[in-house]
Amino acid sequence: MSTLKFCGRCNNVLYPKEDKERRMLLYACGNCDHEEIADNNIVYRNKVHHSDRRRTQELENVAADPTLPRTKSVRCSQCNHGEAVFFQAPTKGEEGMTLIFVCCNPTCGNRWRD
């Protein structure tokens, strides 16, 4: 994994730079003329890890998402609220999609499948 590199002369951050003639990656200082050959061609890696708690939080917040479609033709079985957002999600272990409803009552957040 790549980490920040610092200039050996002035301690500023080194930035990736392409040497087109030699076809190689360098790290160059933006303050002085120091350059060094990169030991790895990976400049940046973005790893995203979601915990189960985070996924639950994201699902709870979908009721406030103005881009999701809403319906007033269903009632929540928990609080009897008459509005829900809905979206499709893959069905675990099966082919196809499932329609998921989320109650728009801010104190409820109940979810159910069609």
The N- and C-terminal alpha carbons lie at a distance of 44 Å
Instruction: Spell out the helices and strands N to C.
Output: EEEHEEEE
Kindly state the percentage of residues in helix. under 10%
Q: How large is the radius of gyration? A: 25 Å
Low-confidence stretches: none
Strand order of the largest sheet: 4-5-6-7
What is the makeup of the main sheet? 4 strands, antiparallel
- Extended strand count: 7
Helix/strand-derived category reads mainly beta
Polypeptide structure, described:
It is found in: Nucleus, Nucleolus. Zn(2+) 1 binds at residues 7, 10, 29, 32. Keywords: DNA-directed RNA polymerase, Metal-binding, Nucleus, Transcription, Zinc, Zinc-finger. GO terms for molecular function: DNA-directed RNA polymerase activity; nucleic acid binding; zinc ion binding. This protein has 114 residues and is mostly beta strands. Helices cover 8% and strands 30% of the residues. A 4-stranded antiparallel beta sheet has the order 4-5-6-7, with no helix packed on it. It is elongated and about 70 Å long. The protein starts with 13 loop residues before the first strand and ends with a strand. 9% of the residues are buried. The mean pLDDT is 83.
